[in-house]
Amino acid sequence: MKRDVEKLGKASPFSLTTLCGQPEPFGRRRDRTPVSQPQISVVSAQPFQKSASWIWSAEGSHAAPSAPNRSPSHYQVRYFRRTFVVGDPAKARLTVHVSADSRYLFYCNGEFIGRGPAKGDINHHFYDTFNLTPHLRKGRNVLAAIVLDMSRVAHRPARLGPPCSVMTYTGGFVLEGVLTGKSGKVMADLRTDANWRVAIDRAHRFQNENTTFEGYHGYFEHRVSKFIPAGWNTTRFDDSGWPPAHVLFQAELRENRRDPTSPYGLMPRMIPMLEEAEPQNFPDAYIAGGGEVPAAWKKLLAAGRPLTLKPGTRIDLVLDMGRLTTAFPHLAVSGGAGSSFRLTYAEALRLPWNTSGAKLLGRQQSLANLASHFADESSGWTFDRRGKVTGWCDRWEPSGRDEVFEPLHWRAFRYVGLQITVGKQPLKVRAVRQRFTAYPYRIKARFRSSDPALDRIWQVGLHTMRMCSHETFEDCPHYEQMQYAGDTMITSQLALFTTGDARLSRQALYHFDWSRLTDGLTQSRYPSRLIQVIPAWSIHWISTLRDYLLCTGDRTTAADLLPGVHAVLDWYRRQAGPDGLPAKLPFWNITDWCPWWPRGVVPGADTGATCIHSAQFINALDETAWIVRQLGKPAEADALTAEAERLRRIAHATFWSEAEGLYFDRPGGPEISQYGNAWAVVAGFAGERERSILMRRFPEDAKLAPGSFFWWHTGFAALARCGRFDDLPRHLGPWHESVNCGLSTFVEENSYWRSLCHAWSAHPVLEFQQRILGVLPAEPGFARIAIRPHRCGLTHAKGSVCTPHGLVETGWRVEGERFLLEARVPGNIPTRVTLPDGTSREFAGGRIRLEGVLQ
After folding, report:
1. Same domain as 157, residue 298
2. Within this chain, do residues 119 and 100 fall inside the same structural domain, yes or no?
3. CA distances (Å), 350 to each of 217, 269, 572, 595, in order?
4. What rounded mean pLDDT belongs to the chain?
5. Smallest Cα–Cα separation from 693: which of 396, 727, 701?
6. Is residue 531 within 8 Å of residue 167, measured between CB atoms?
7. Which DSSP helix (H) or strand (E) runs through 808?
8. Of the residues 416, 438, 460, which one is the last residue of a structural domain?
9. Peptide bond between residue 699 and the one before it cis (omega within 30 degrees of 0)
10. Strands 427-438 and 275-276
């Protein structure tokens, strides 16, 4: 797909002599004579075997410390080119392996090929592989890349900076590639070295205008396109004036590193490239403030009919996607030198609180609580057209040529405020569109029921998951784009059950394993420039691994990560008090965004043991015992189970209050909470007697500290353990209210509305699949399947669940006093079906039909 896409770039603070020799200082070599290098007669089966080198421009080295035309940007942006000749494209073969620090866009003969690398860290730095054979042409060919270096800028959440999730060392670009004939004979060695040409970009500047709340996603753009070399990535461009690239250090695969000369341990990409759709129209648009757009604009937006704006024209539009999306805005123009564009991105519009009509979900919270989080905000969100588009923005100054603007990185928005000021020359606008991008999930699972409101939660939940899945799982696409272990525990399971694609889940598991601190805990978010540790999030990482193994059967990955699991458990053991329960935990001890708890920290976490942290540790012991048992270590599993059982008895005695009929948050109370009692049930503190007692007050008693959307993931499991899962519809009020307010995604939590898209709030989708439909793996990889549906007041429900063997399709309905279930299970997978009345039967896969009676 051909696009006039723009650029990226980076820089190096120093230069190293390499095996290819010391290149001449910046600006010297203007000739096209190849630099002497070893001849390659055999192509290595693996890339980066003492061959390609990382390259940059020499002005960043000691060779030329004061080069002219320095980049004006906060980041450093560079263009790279390498020309070569192909005699007969039908007989030529070319595969290349590409990476960069920090980001690249890659082209072959002017055609956009891909962008990367995927997010890793410096010691686990991903590279991408592209088959360029279909893009070769007879005669002159060119490989080209724009590279963006973020290493020289500090990350400051309150004022943006680089993306916190992009870990970096220094600017660099690397490519391994050998043009061969069909027989394998080498025709041209295209690896990065001093034969590549480089130029410093002067068009890209980066800014943080309108930063009203901390953001972790990095600077937005200010592009001045007159400084972009026209056709720089095409074969017709003359790069004879560009100096040769400066060689930094030899590229190395991570597995081959011994005494490294390079900071990067290169690894093949673990996930597919993101989906990038063709440009599509905005479904709706209007003049800011609510007015109708002129007829000429309607024709442009709906039918792509170009319009010409006179010099001095000003236009202020609002483009409305109708729901939140993640996409590249796509503008095509001609002429109009001296004009300017501003694109402002928002999840929702803003109005003063007294006119917005915005509601708080769940238990009503005071506006003072919101003010504590929105110190700079004086308005609430709305979808009323009278509202304003406020927030981060991109700025663009077109060159006067025919060109297309897309930012280098995708944006998250429902609304785009488009402000255009035309300069002294007419401006022809040829397209105002957008291109969707996200992780290339294909949602295969389905769900429908007798309650249309549940079906709407299903749809919004799946859209929330998609908007929070790109190169990593994300807590939110608009503010942070960071991968947190607590959020990932839910989003990963959503992906496994609804798409069957486990690749992003597996990458996330390794990401957190790589993040481990010397004391044994994983970081709570990773990749991340800023270290943040939440002990409970390391526990959630163990749950994610357990769920991954159960869904995929991938014992190899589980065995590889098991030492890290033990490191987390050992850390908790070292924090134990005299009774063996974890106590006085360091780091940030948030467990949930409870509005009664400062920064989400349960009372007593910093001074002693708490019910929640004790329960989470005991549950982690149980889950680890299950994992090691699946890995063929029964003795180790038995020891972990015994440890959990011993601590379970201690925890029950420590936190149970006979007078309250509930579990205290800390020994002796007086605090009680929804989340603490949910964890006590899930971790098995509560026996049958205690469960029946606490259900008199749980979860709705007003004295229980309320949880957010997140706690309900455990809360619903607790209801199921107490035999009260059929109460589910009573507790879905916050999700129904979200949908009824017009939200297309679920918010982060219900005491303030920072993020309107947070995948941890989409977990009712799992309840619909795992408990209403009732489909769960009974053994790793769905080697055995359990189907145990719950009615939840419905008269019928049907849908499907993804497994490694294909879809499990099931449905049930109530007819009079009968409960009828039908299912189709792929292959001959042993399946136990248990109906609500207790009727149970084993099947050998295939078509299943079972009938019971209503209780």
Report:
1. no
2. yes
3. 21, 40, 45, 24
4. 90
5. 701
6. no
7. strand 806-815
8. 438
9. yes
10. antiparallel
Say how far apart CA 510 and CA 521 lie, in whole Å: 14
CB 20 within 8 A of CB 249: no
Do residues 742 and 347 lie in contact, with contact meaning Cβ atoms separated by under 8 Å?
Answer: no
For the cut 70, the answer to whether the pLDDT of residue 331 exceeds it is yes
Neighbours of 201 (CB within 10 A): 27
Euclidean distance between the first and the last CA atom of the chain, given in angstroms as a whole number: 59
Rounded to whole angstroms, the Cα distance separating 466 from 412 reads: 12
Split into its structural domains, the chain has a count of: 3
Would residue 517 count as lying in a domain?
Answer: no
The verdict on 127 and 249 lying in the same domain is yes
Which CATH number is 248's domain given? 2.60.120.260
Please, which residues have CB within 8 angstroms of residue 383's CB and are 6 or more apart in sequence? 348, 349, 742
Q: Is residue 842 part of a domain?
A: yes
pTM score of the predicted model: 0.91
User: What are the tokens at 555?
Assistant: 């014992």
Neighbouring CB atoms inside 10 A of 831's CB total 23
User: Does residue 237 form part of some domain?
Assistant: yes
* Residue 195 resides in a domain: yes
Q: Are residues 390 and 241 in the same domain?
A: no
Residue 459 CB contacts under 8 Å (≥ 6 apart), including other chains = none
One domain for residues 172 and 126: yes
Q: What is the 3-state secondary structure (H, E, C) of 687-754?
A: CHHHHHHHCCCCCCCCCCECCCCCCHHHHHHHHHHCCCHHHHHHHCHHHHHHHHCCCCCCCCCCCCCC
Per-residue pLDDT reduced to its tens digit, 166-217: 999 999 999 999 999 988 899 999 999 999 999 999 999 999 888 777 789 9
pLDDT digits (tens, 9 = 90+) for 727-767: 999 999 999 999 999 999 999 987 656 789 999 999 999 99
Residue 800's domain is classified under what CATH number?
2.60.420.10
Residue range(s) defining the domain that contains residue 325: 280-348+383-438
How large is the average pLDDT for residues 80-92? 97
Question: Do 95 and 189 share a domain, yes or no?
Answer: yes
Specify the range with the lowest mean pLDDT, choosing from 267-281, 377-391, 653-667: 377-391
